[in-house]
Amino acid sequence: MIPTARSPFVKQFSPLQPAPIMDVCLSSEQQPGHLNEGPSTPDGWLEAKEEGVLHEDGTGGPPGESNKIEPSLQSLQKFVPTDYASYTQEHYLFAGKKIVIQESIESYGAVVWPGATALCQYLEEHTEELNLQDAKILEIGAGPGLVSIVASILGAQVTATDLPDVLGNLQYNLLKNTLKCTAHLPEVKELVWGEGLEQNFPKSSFYYDYVLASDVVYHHYFLDKLLTTMVYLCQPGTVLLWANKFRFSTDYEFLDKFKQVFDTTLLAEFPEASVKLFKGTLRWD
Predict the structure, then answer these.
(1) Could you give the count of Cα atoms lying within 13 Å of 232 in the half-sphere of its Cβ?
(2) Model confidence over 168-202: pLDDT tens digits?
(3) pTM of the predicted structure, to 2 decimals
(4) Is 127 in a helix, a strand, or coil?
(5) CA distances from 9 to 45, 57, 180, 237 (A)
(6) In whole angstroms, what is the distance from residue 281 CA to residue 4 CA?
(7) Beta-bridge partners for 137
(8) Is 150 helix (H, G, I), strand (E, B) or coil?
(9) Between 283 and 2, the higher pLDDT residue
């Protein structure tokens, strides 16, 4: 999710004049979010970094630098951030708001991948149709938090989940971009696919209108656990929105398994980024 060849809805700023972070939710500037130019592939982004295209921007600093975090953020901080050696800041524009995401290429979970920007665009363009105001949403594999931030800005009650090592950076980005400017402050929870589901997300207490997932399917060995988690989190009435860049044959194999347990609709395609967006509702027959 790291746009080097930036898409039209990515707002660029001079590295010498970084955008103010705590005011990002106060902007009323509007810009259409058409995916005319897809974000680069992970390999392309890494090549750009090696060529020196990306700059280090220490504005705001790593989330662990408490002297640079406002007291209101400190009081809400539950997770200790990973101390990555370097951070960059990427700027996005959705729902008329400037969003600043702190990223690091040292972790897959600390960068924005193409499926996330595609899913954000869809949420923005279909907010009323999806009835996102006050909707209860859980995001699987939230990474640095762009999708959860956009869903929160659009009025949803969001729970952002991921593995323990990325929760600090996720929490930092969520608070920086939603504090005092969304109706519901998003929650951050640990979620290891396939583990402790009933203990940590008991069906009697947790119900979600939407489960969101973007670029959670790639070359890893936890696809069965991912599908188990998707199935567990969906109850009658829950809609799963899954956006993914299709890179490998295993991605399509997962899609075949997904279709076996979910009634599946292809909602949108973004050919320039090789991203497909699916809607799934769990089969109960």
Answers:
(1) 22
(2) 999 999 999 999 889 899 999 999 999 999 999 99
(3) 0.76
(4) helix
(5) 18, 20, 23, 32
(6) 34
(7) 158, 210
(8) helix
(9) 283
